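Record Zn-ribbon and HTH transcriptional regulator, 367 aa.
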Amino acid sequence: MKHNCESCSTPIGFKGVCWKCRTEQERNEVLAWTHEQITSKIQHLIAHAGRLSKWDTDEYDVCCKLLEIRGICPPELQRAALEARAFSMEQLYYNAPVDVRDGMITLLMEATDSREASELMTCLAMQGDDQALQTLLMLERNPRPWREKLYVNPSVYAQAGGWTFDQEGNRHELNYATCYAMEKGDKSIDNTAVIGRLCQDTCPHCSCQLVDMLVLDGQDERLKFLGMDGIFTATGCPNCCGFTDAVFSRFTWDGGSTPIFPYNELEDEMENYVDEDVMKELLANPYILGKTPVPLFYGVGSEDINTIGGFASWVQDWQYIACPDCSKPMKYVAQIQWDTVMDYSEGTLYIEVCLDCSIASMHHQQT
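=>
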């Protein structure tokens, strides 16, 4: 028997509300938590910090909601988590105080197990200050025995915190320290950020019509944090971007954008799954830029949120694409949850930029 969501009327296979409405309802409940409720929850988390190392506990869930939706993680909680050696939730240690940082460094220097070292490097990357950089740089130059069992160097672990470093120890920021969510609204009133704008050209691989997947007016006061001196446009094929490691376009600050072909490892005659109805749905999406910033991890825990800046919700591991011109890791700009803009696809589209080379990248992850 077919049913409609009791909130948005979307057809679903059961009686009740769809997952998107349920997620939104849960988020609104967290936003409604009072100061007293938050204080009580933090005190409980501190007293049971050991449970923060297990993702299937109520404590882990509450901590994620405080961090992601309310942007709250006091030093007292970070200290309790360190004492309990709870390192499964790396964002818990974002900008942690120096005593927590020093405690993690001590444990990392004493580590003999590769898994423990991996978790500690990721958490230390989230703390992210200059001493964290120097520690990871030292470990890259002088590998410990556990390094042999890891796939990547400490400089890649640093990327978990939204930055990395080169062999001379120079820091490269990979994330923006401001975040905005895309909200449902009237695009005729506010077109500062546009998801999906049809192009005239078609993809040489599949003949799907190309789309400006994201257009941002960097001169809008809300987006000044991006450091974009004009209109940023990322253009690609919505069909093929899910079948290759990344697609690229070259932009100009007047809003121009030229896709870069051919796409890597794609056949010349790919099948086009984006039919006319899917394309119409993508172009008709209702999202506009929110009026005020949200917490940096706002888009991390929910599959129904599109964000500009902040941290991404990586389906697999974090992934910063190498710029095809200069080979440096590109900077994360935005995430678009595919099934918020069209039913055809699932997973997430990540958009990154190399401002030095005027290159935009788009890549896809899904379970």
